[in-house]
Amino acid sequence: MPGPILRTLLRCAGLNAQSQIVLMKEPTMNNHALFPAAAVAAALLLAGCSTPDAPGSTPGAAGSMSHHAEETSGGTAENNSADTMFAQMMIPHHEQAITMSDIMLAKEGLDPRIAELAGKIKAAQGPEIQKMEDWLQDWNEPAAPMDGHSMMMDGMLSDEDLAALEQAQGTEAAQLFLTQMIAHHEGAVDMAQDEAAAGANAAAVELAEAITAEQNAEIEQMKALLRDF
Questions:
Q1: pLDDT tens digits for range 113-158
Q2: What is the pTM of this model?
Q3: CB under 8 Å to 194, separation ≥6 — which residues?
Q4: For residue 21, which of 51, 79, 197, 210 sits 20 to 30 Å off, Cα-Cα?
Q5: 193-207: b or e for each residue (b if 16 or more CB lie within 10 Å)?
């Protein structure tokens, strides 16, 4: 008589009691006759005893979700940690450049070349801020680093520096603005070059490369202007 293993296989396959009796009856069952019964039971086991997918799931979905999770946790092709940090830090950096430009544009008797430069900086960096804010929202990233990372980046002015710029007038103001903005631009170029080297998001890398080219050109322009004051 076949042992309890075959009986278990038949029960696992979902056969009712009557069907199990038919298959388990032992006529004069020799070894050759027993083999087909065992083969049938094994086939039923494969069909009926395999672990089902969770209700409502798609076969293979678990493996697919795991693969997606691995990609997401390490930074997907859409963006990585370098892209996030670039946007989070460049936004306040740009905002301060606009503040500096506004301070200069509010002054009376401003040299037209300085006014043109300040207006150009505002026109370029305002839309870039909006673009980076949109990226962070699309990436479900916070506007600022969550780990308390210092936002004092290279080239950023202190409150005292900004106050000095506000108080300065005439040639002194122009010289101070140019000196401060050169250092400010150099800090932005350093951050942009880091993003170009380590970023994964094509649009963010493209912006970083544009910032590098644009602000390097403005640095040379400001150095030339500074020699005239």
A1: 999 999 999 999 999 999 999 999 999 999 988 765 545 688 999 9
A2: 0.66
A3: 82, 86
A4: 51
A5: eebbeebbbeebbeb
